[in-house]
Amino acid sequence: MRILVTGGSSFVGAHFCQRAAVLHEVVALHHSTPLQLNGVSPLKVDLRRDRDRRRMAEVNADVVVHVACKIRARGGKDEASSAAAARVNGQMMDSVLALGKPVIYASSTVVHWTQPTPYATARKEDERRLRESGLPYAILRPSAPYGPRLGNHQPRHRESFHTLVDLVRHSPVVPVLGNGKYRRQPLHVDDLSTAILRLLDAPLPNTAYDIGGAAALTMDEVVDTIAAALNKSVVKLHLPKALFVQVGKLSPDFDPDLLNAADEDEVADPSALAAALGFTPRAFSQGVRDLL
Predict the structure, then answer these.
(1) Mean pLDDT by 10 residues, the chain (292 residues)
(2) SS3 letters for the chain?
(3) Which option is the CATH number for 2-156+186-215+267-291: 3.40.50.970, 3.40.190.10, 3.40.50.720, 1.20.120.530?
């Protein structure tokens, strides 16, 4: 099977490409970060350009795995970066749908947040357009993907879990947004890759699945689990959300709009996925060793 992977240079995309290339022919699209993954054919494109859309079509893939996503992007003079990113994400979905191929879309559990953000709104809109496209599809909504760094690949943006591990490893005090009681269900990136590969083994089901680790954890519990794995003792310093939002405005790796909604739960009921694909993702306490 020939798989076209958008966002092949991202953290999730690179991990999936490396796994998939063992079984399939993989063409990985990237925009700026060079790709050097064994068995993966890189193709540098801008998903928004007509000439690059033609190059994508020439690949003649059997299926598209759409991982590419913008969190922040440069907009107009008065346009918030997250709103600009939402527009870019819509343009990328245009290019994917124009190929007329079956699509597996890596969305996000942020679609369940009650607080509106441009990122979550764009994800919901992309899901709607994919459902109404008439193309065979599957949607996976991962909660908080994490995993090891790939030695032969450096994503453009630093993963938040890697930053958190470094904080726990090197600092006796770990800052936590808000009260730390909001929940995540960290999903090992290899389990996400396994789910995508299993979806490829049968006709796509034209449905959406939430996917997360075996159990939901509060943010405080995530920090404690990492500390226990490192045999470290740390103090969690709970700071106002507004402070994190202001800091997020200074870093390209964080979106202030997402930080403002980050104290919502982001969990996933794994039962539908387990019934459909026959496996349950690992618990964070097991997978955390790969982060270390």
Answers:
(1) 94 94 95 80 90 93 93 52 78 94 96 86 93 98 92 75 93 95 95 96 95 95 96 94 82 74 87 89 92 80
(2) CEEEEECCCCHHHHHHHHHHCCCCEEEEEECCCCCCCCCEEEEECCCCCHHHHHHHHHHCCCEEEECCCCCCCCCCCCCCHHHHHHHHHHHHHHHHHHCCCCEEEECCHHHHCCCCCHHHHHHHHHHHHHHCCCCCEEEEEECCEECCCCCCCCCCCCCHHHHHHHHHHHCCEEEEECCCCCEECCEEHHHHHHHHHHHCCCCCCCEEEEECCCCCEEHHHHHHHHHHHCCCCCEEEEECHHHHHHHHCCCCCCCHHHHHCCCCCECCCCHHHHHHHCCCCCCHHHHHHHHC
(3) 3.40.50.720
